[in-house]
C-alpha cells in the first residue's frame, strides 16, 4: 500500500481534504490499494468557484484546442490500458481482461470526442421574412457536475467528462467513494493534458457532502448522474426546483427472451454473459431469462451446466471468469435477494453461496433460479449481482409481454432465428437498447446509451447524442 494520500484536483492544484478513505481490494480485503482524500464543503466551494471562473474562456476556446487536449488524454489512457486496467480490477473486482477492456473503451471515448469537438454542427436557414438570415448554433451549458457509479469506474467517467470538455464546459467530477483509484488515475492524466486551471476539477467525497452541494449550487448549470433510482429522483426534484439541466441513468431489470427456434448454444452464451459476467454488476445485465416452453427443459439443463462451470475467484487470477462482489454491503444485498427468491417459491437450481478462496474476499457463486413468476418481488427489483431468474413463456407474444412487464426499460434482448420475431421485438420492446442474438450488456462507445421508463430521464449519453445534454441551442437572426 502506498503511504501517499491521493488528493483532489481543484483549480489546477492537488489539494488534500480534511479526511481520507482507504480503497480496499474486494478480491483480497487485506490489500489496501491507497488512501484517497475526502472533500468538505470548503473544498467543494473552491472547486465551484474555479470552474465558474474558468467556464467562459473555455467555452470560447477553439475546437482544435479542445480536440488536442482530448486526443492527448485518450492516447495516454490507451498506452497505459494494461496498467490502469489492472488497477480497475484490483479495486472494483472485474476480471483483468474486463478491466483492461474498460480502460481501452475509456481511451477510445476520449479520442472519439476529440474529433466531435471539430464536428459540432449548426444550421443556416432562410427566414420566412425577406432580408433576414437565420443561424442555429450550439454553445456549452457552462459548469457541469458529473456524478459516477462504482460499477464502471473508468468508462462512465470517460463518457461524461469527454463530451463535457469537448463541447466547452467546465467540469466538477465526483466519482463513487468505493472506487476512487480509476477516477484519480484518469484525473491525473487530465491534469497534464494542457487544460486551463479550473476547467476540470476532481472532488472526491461522500454524496451527502459533495453531491448535495453540486445539486444545491446555482453555479452548476447541469448535472449528469448515473446511480440508483432513489438518488436520481432526489436529483431530478432538486434540479427542477432551481432550473438546472439534468441527465439521469438509473436502474434496470433487463429481460433476455429465448424462443423455441433459438440457436441454443448461442442463447446460453448470451445469458451467461448478460447475467453473470462482471459479477452481474451492470445496469444492462439480464436478470430475467424468459424462455419459451418448447425448449424450456433443454435450455435450463444446458444453462445449469454452463453456470456451474463458471470459475469464481481473484480478479487478477488468469483462470477467473467471475470476480468478487464489490464490497460487503453489496454481497449482503445479493444474499438477501437470493433468500427472497427461495421464500417466494422460485426453484433454486444452483449457486448463491459465499465461497472461500486463497484470499479473503467477497466471493459468491452465480445463482440460478427456475420456474419463476414475473410478479415475484425478486423479478421486479434490481439485484445488481450474479442472480438470474428463469421465467417460462407460452409463446412469443407472452414472452414479449413478460419482457415489458417491468418499471424499467434499459436493455432488452431476444435470441431467435426468426426474422419476423426479431423485427417485431426490436420495435415493440419497451427499452432504450434492444439486442438480438447478442448479450444485453455491452455497447459500442460511439452510439447512444440510455433507457426508458424508470431507467433514464433526459437525453442520451455517448456518441453524437451527447451534444443534446452538454450544449444549449441558440437561434440568431441577422439583417442582411
Folded structure, characterized:
This protein has 480 residues and is an alpha/beta fold. It folds into two domains: 5-250 and 455-479, Aldehyde Dehydrogenase, Chain A, domain 1, CATH 3.40.605; 254-436, Aldehyde Dehydrogenase, Chain A, domain 2, CATH 3.40.309.10. 38% of the residues lie in helices and 24% in strands. The protein is built from 14 helices and 25 strands. It has helices spanning 41-59, 63-79, 81-92, 96-116, 155-166, 180-191, 207-216, 229-242, 264-275, 296-308, 328-343, 396-404, 419-428, 467-470; strands at residues 5-6, 8-10, 13-15, 19-25, 28-38, 123-126, 132-140, 143-147, 170-174, 200-202, 222-226, 245-249, 254-258, 286-292, 347-350, 354-355, 363-364, 367-370, 387-393, 408-409, 411-415, 433-436, 452-453, 456-457, 471-479. The strands form seven sheets. The protein has a seven-stranded mixed β-sheet with strand order 15-18-19-14-13-21-22, sandwiched between helices. Strands 10-9-8-11-12-24 form a six-stranded mixed β-sheet, with helices on both faces. A three-stranded mixed β-sheet has the order 1-5-4, with helices on one face. Helix 8 (229-242) links the parallel strand 11 (222-226) and strand 12 (245-249). Helix 1 crosses helix 7 (207-216), helix 3 (81-92) runs antiparallel to helix 6 and helix 9 (264-275) crosses helix 10 (296-308).
